[in-house]
Each structure stands twice: as structure tokens, then as C-alpha cells.
User: Which sequence fits this backbone?
């Protein structure tokens, strides 16, 4: 059997960069790709200064700059008027520009770089069929031109894009979300007077982005209707460009075009034993803003260092892989949130939105002190690139002091570490709370920040918000559970352990598990020293319990806070035994519009009051009302229960109908 140190699946930018980095470190690598030839489309075109720093480490930055087109300025327009300009030539970097270069050229340069890496071999037209752990290596089954063959590798890395076969074979779960806006893009010969700069054209009718490319070409990206069909691309792009910018593309032939609907994807982890993920195989963000490929480059840089340490120094693979996952997931969240924010700003339509956006850009974004920060922000210089430094000690837990170092972006700038002991409540990505609640992964992250912040006062707040009735409601929930002797009970989003303690008291001979996403909450729950209770950090959308192994599932204010309600209910049904019981206490809302709106206002006002009193921030507990606003009404919720296979046994309304205790049975 043929062997190598690392088998890389996918010969895109991330995979080829990783191969160059590992080859430079002397590791034997084989890169395979299912496609027989490199892509001919331009695809991603923006290469940011941090990526050029990474390429400098393998002596390819000069070749990239030689073949690319440096873009030093970006102009912003609204309804035909220039609002201002972002100047990249002012950033403190060795590369004071955004480099425009078609992805096909990026791949070609990276492939040529492999010529000086004798330890690396690229094989195209080879498809991964299967992979399995076998001792101290991964055995991959490949379909080649010569037939089926096997390769043994110390590690296998999936860089094979958003439809990753490696991710599927390793059974690494991913959270996905598809955005509503649709776009179409095309590359045309540049016959405009826009010059070698980027231009963003906003209007009440939609947005257009325009970027120069090498070879006197220009890319146009337009916001299109949701009913848009790909066969209409060219005509629709020409029409919208002329309508929104005044530039006429009629009579010009598009060299390449493609529609796309932005997607958000993030794996729960980036490794499974000796199998790892990088680039779009691990995460996908909106391409608006051009940060996706650059995030993959940063993945490859850190992963090459991780693999080299594990391979050469024999350090703990699992510890290093967890560090890699944690660092790169955090970096992705930052970049993805920026991309989502930019997309949100550009997709607001209508006259009021146009005027508001113009005022905001002109009077806020393009005024000091924010204006000075825009260029480094868009150039991705403000996204930290922590690296494993000499202070990283084998086996040291992730997040312990001294385990991470921050690599300098350039000789002139240093990014601050993004490893936080207590995350701030307010998101720093600029999205509204409503936007966070729409995307499961963003909601999950926000929940963790929120409940870390309020953990110490959570018991008092629940009592205050309920006028002292909270404990009585929880006792009512537990008293409604069936009589049984040795049940296995799981309390979801257990918080400080109120319901968990009641379960342990009700079923002294049973097994009781309390699970919560927030470590600070779990520490408070554990401090109660409840005999026979096990606490663990888990996401209710991805529980670790075996199928049909649990008798009773409970939750106090749990389902409303689930990152994805459907996923949480599916997990509850999966772990419940046939005939098992689930019981939940949560805020509720009637199907009627007026009472629901009134309840929302009361809850928001009451929550805001206590947030202001206890945290000097009314948003802290106003969050409860916002989650309820997006939560199904009682009738719709009961319908969802039934579709999931959970029969409603009983329902009791409390607190003037603002809360509900519902008892369910698995059918």
C-alpha cells in the first residue's frame, strides 16, 4: 500500500496552499482532486493583505502581485452620487491594497509552487470513495484511472469544498443557513471609465458591485429578484447595471457568468480523529466581501503548523486539533458576520432604506474615527491570526493562559487575541439581535454570551420576572411527570439546576442528567452538589445520548432558546424511548395578533427594566421578548410537536396566559 504523511482531498486554493506549506516543512503529501483539469472560471478574485503575508511565507507573494491587479481604492455610490472613498493605500501593511486575481490564476500559481516541493504530488482525476481509521493512520480508498486503489496516510485533510465528501465520510455535522437575497455575477471587458478601483453602487432598486480584474476585465455583481433564473443571467445583469449605475454593457460578451444564493455553513468541529477539514469543507460564508477564500488560506496556515508539530514533535494530536478548531471557528464567525453585515446593508431596497443608508454611510462610516478603521477592516487586517507559538505546552487545556500566541500580521501591525475569558454580551459583528436569532449558529453563540453574562444573577432574575412564581411553576412541571421507579431523565438547558434538582428529588432511584451550553451555568448547577446528578456541556440540537435511551426529557425556558427548534425537537424524539415523556415550561403567545403583541410589549418592558437595574443594559432581558416574537404561537407550536412525532398530552396556561406547561409523549 502506498503511504504518505498527509493526504489532501481537494486541489482548490486552500488544499494547494496547505500542500505548499507542508512540503516546505518536509512532509510527504499527496493532493487528489476529482476534476481532471484545473477550473477555467474566474470564481473568487479578491486576495487580502493577510493572505499575501501567508503567501510570502512560501515565496509566492511576488508572483501573485505580478500577475494580479492591486486595487487601492473603493468608491461608494448611492442613487448616482458618490458618497465617499475607502483608501487601502493608507493601511499599515507591506501590501497596501486588495489584490484582484481570478481564482484560476491563483490555482495555477500554487500548482507551479509545488514544482519546488519534491515531497508533494498532485493527482487530478482521482476521487475519494471511502476512508477509515486503521491503527496510526487513515486508509483512503480512491477511484483512479487505473482502477480502485488504497493509500495510507498519517492524516487526511478535506479541502474539497462546501459539498465535501470528506466531511460526509467522517460524519462531521454542520449547521447551515441559506440567505434570502439572490445575486448574479459576470465578467465583461472593461470599457468603462471606472479605472483600477472598486465601486459599490447602492440604490432604492438594488445594489451593484463592480471590481476591476487583470487583462482589462471587470466583474459585475447585481442583486436580482428571488424568482431569477440562471438562463436570464446576462440580460438581467445588463439591465440592472444600466438601471442602477448608468453603464451600458449591451453588445459586450460576458466571459463568464453565474447566479448564486449566499449560504452559511459551519461544522461543529473541524476534525474527527485523524481526519481534518479546512476551507469551504469546514465553513462557508456569504461571498459578498470576498472573505471566504482568504479565511481558507488562514485555515491552511494554522493547520500546516499543527500537523508539523504533531508529526515532528510527537505532541498530542487531539489537543492541537482542538486548538485548531477553536481558533478557526472563532475567526470564521468574525469574518462571516462581517460578510453578512455587508450583504444586509447592500440588500435594503426602497426609498427610505436608500436615504437611511446614504446618511449612515456618509455621516457615520465615512467620518472620523470610523473612517480610519474601514480600510484595515475590509482588508481583513483586524481579524486576528493566533498561531501555536513556543509557549504552547503539550497537553495544556485550550484557553489556559500561555497556550496561544498572536502572530504579527506585518512588521507594522499586530492583531489582538480573540480568545476571551468572558465574552461580551453585545455582538461586535454589527448585526441586529433579530439577525442573530435567524441564524442558528449566531443564535447559539449569542446564547452562550448572554447566559455567561447573567449566570450569577439568573436565579434572582427568574424570580423577579415571574413575581416570585418561577419555582412553583417548575414544581408543577415536575409533578405532572409520570410515576416511575428508575427513569433516565435529561433536563435540557438546565441553567443553575432548578428543575434538575426537582427531578433528583422526584426520582431518587433514577438517573438524572443536566445539560447546558454555558459553562458558567453548569458551574453554578454543580455547586449545588446534587447527589446522583450528572452535568455536561451539550447543545440541545446535538445531544450525545444514544437513540431511545431516555425516559423523560424536561426543559425550563429551553425550546424558545434552541438555536434551531426543529433540530432540538428531532433530537428529543431521537433520544426518547417509545412512549417516553417530555415536559416543558416556557413563555407562550396566543395565535391572536393583538393579545400576542400586547404580551410582547409587556414582557419586553418588564425585561428591559430588570436589565437596566441589574446590568445597566435594557437589552439583556429584553432578549426574552425578542425570542418569543420569533417563536411559534401555541397553535402552531402544538402542530410542530405533532409533525415531529410528539403527541400533546396536556397543556396548562400560567401567568395570565403568558406561560405554558406542556406535557408530550413520544408516539
Assistant:
Amino acid at each position: 500500500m502506498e503511504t504518505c504523511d498527509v493526504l489532501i482531498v481537494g486541489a482548490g486554493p486552500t488544499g494547494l496552499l496547505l500542500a505548499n506549506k507542508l512540503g516546505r516543512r518536509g512532509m510527504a503529501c499527496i493532493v487528489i482532486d476529482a476534476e481532471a483539469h484545473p477550473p477555467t472560471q474566474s470564481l473568487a478574485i479578491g486576495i487580502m493583505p493577510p493572505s499575501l503575508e501567508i503567501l510570502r511565507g512560501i515565496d509566492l507573494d511576488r508572483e501573485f502581485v505580478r500577475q494580479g491587479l492591486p486595487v487601492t481604492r473603493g468608491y461608494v455610490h448611492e442613487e448616482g452620487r458618490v458618497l465617499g472613498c475607502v483608501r487601502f493605500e493608507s493601511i499599515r501593511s507591506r501590501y497596501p491594497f486588495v489584490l484582484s486575481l481570478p481564482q484560476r490564476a491563483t490555482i495555477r500559481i500554487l500548482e507551479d509552487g509545488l514544482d519546488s516541493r519534491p515531497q508533494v504530488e498532485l493527482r487530478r482525476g482521482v476521487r475519494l470513495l471511502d476512508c477509515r481509521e486503521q491503527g496510526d493512520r487513515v486508509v483512503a480508498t480512491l477511484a483512479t484511472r487505473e482502477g480502485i486503489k488504497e493509500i495510507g496516510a498519517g492524516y487526511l485533510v478535506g479541502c474539497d469544498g462546501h459539498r465535501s465528501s470528506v466531511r460526509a465520510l467522517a460524519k462531521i455535522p454542520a449547521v447551515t443557513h441559506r440567505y434570502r437575497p439572490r445575486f448574479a455575477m459576470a465578467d465583461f471587458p472593461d470599457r468603462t471609465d471606472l479605472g483600477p478601483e472598486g465601486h459599490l453602487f447602492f440604490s432604492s432598486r438594488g445594489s451593484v458591485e463592480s471590481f476591476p480584474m487583470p487583462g482589462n476585465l471587470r466583474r459585475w455583481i447585481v442583486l436580482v429578484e428571488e424568482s431569477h433564473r440562471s438562463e436570464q443571467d446576462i440580460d438581467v445583469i445588463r439591465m440592472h447595471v444600466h438601471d442602477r449605475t448608468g453603464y451600458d454593457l449591451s453588445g459586450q460578451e460576458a466571459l463568464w457568468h453565474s447566479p448564486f444564493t449566499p449560504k452559511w455553513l459551519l461544522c461543529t468541529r473541524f476534525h474527527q480523529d485523524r481526519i481534518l477539514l479546512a476551507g469551504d469543507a469546514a465553513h462557508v460564508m456569504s461571498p459578498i466581501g470576498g472573505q471566504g477564500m482568504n479565511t481558507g488560506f488562514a485555515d491552511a496556515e494554522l493547520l500546516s503548523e499543527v500537523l508539523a508539530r504533531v508529526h515532528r514533535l510527537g505532541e498530542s494530536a487531539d489537543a492541537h486539533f482542538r486548538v485548531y478548531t477553536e481558533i478557526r471557528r472563532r475567526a470564521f464567525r468574525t469574518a462571516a458576520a462581517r460578510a453578512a453585515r455587508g450583504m444586509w446593508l447592500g440588500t435594503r431596497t426602497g426609498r427610505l432604506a436608500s436615504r437611511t443608508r446614504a446618511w449612515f454611510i456618509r455621516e457615520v462610516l465615512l467620518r472620523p474615527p470610523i473612517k480610519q478603521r474601514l480600510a484595515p477592516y475590509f482588508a481583513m487586517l483586524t481579524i486576528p491570526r493566533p498561531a501555536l507559538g513556543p509557549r504552547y505546552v503539550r497537553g495544556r487545556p485550550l484557553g489556559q493562559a500561555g497556550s496561544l500566541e498572536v502572530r504579527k500580521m506585518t512588521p507594522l501591525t499586530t492583531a489582538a487575541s480573540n480568545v476571551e475569558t468572558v465574552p461580551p454580551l453585545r455582538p461586535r459583528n454589527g448585526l441586529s439581535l433579530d439577525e442573530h436569532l435567524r441564524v442558528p449558529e449566531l443564535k447559539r453563540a449569542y446564547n452562550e454570551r448572554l447566559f455567561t453574562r447573567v449566570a450569577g444573577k439568573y436565579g434572582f432574575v427568574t424570580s423577579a420576572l415571574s413575581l416570585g412564581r418561577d419555582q412553583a411553576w417548575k414544581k408543577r412541571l415536575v409533578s405532572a411527570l409520570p410515576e416511575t421507579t428508575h427513569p433516565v431523565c435529561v433536563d435540557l438547558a438546565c441553567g443553575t439546576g432548578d428543575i434538575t434538582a426537582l427531578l433528583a428529588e422526584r426520582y431518587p432511584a433514577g438517573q438524572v442528567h443536566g445539560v447546558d451550553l454555558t459553562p458558567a451555568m453548569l458551574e453554578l448547577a454543580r455547586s449545588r452538589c446534587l447527589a446522583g446528578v450528572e452535568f455536561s456541556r451539550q447543545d440541545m440540537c446535538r445531544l450525545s445520548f444514544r437513540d431511545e435511551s431516555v425516559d423523560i426529557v424536561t426543559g425550563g425556558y429551553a425550546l424558545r432558546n434552541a438555536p434551531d427548534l426543529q433540530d432540538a425537537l428531532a433530537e428529543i424524539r431521537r433520544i426518547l424511548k417509545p412512549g417516553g415523556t417530555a415536559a416543558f415550561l416556557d413563555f407562550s403567545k396566543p395565535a391572536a395578533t393583538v393579545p400576542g403583541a400586547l404580551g410582547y410589549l409587556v414582557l419586553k418592558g418588564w425585561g428591559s427594566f430588570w436589565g437596566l437595574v441589574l446590568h445597566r443594559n435594557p437589552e439583556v432581558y429584553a432578549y426574552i421578548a425578542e425570542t418569543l416574537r420569533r417563536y411559534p404561537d401555541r397553535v402552531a407550536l402544538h402542530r410542530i410537536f405533532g409533525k415531529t412525532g410528539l403527541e400533546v398530552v396536556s397543556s396548562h396556561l400560567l401567568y395570565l396566559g403568558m406561560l405554558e406547561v406542556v406535557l408530550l409523549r413520544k408516539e
Remarks:
- The CA atoms of residues 588 and 657 lie 7 Å apart.
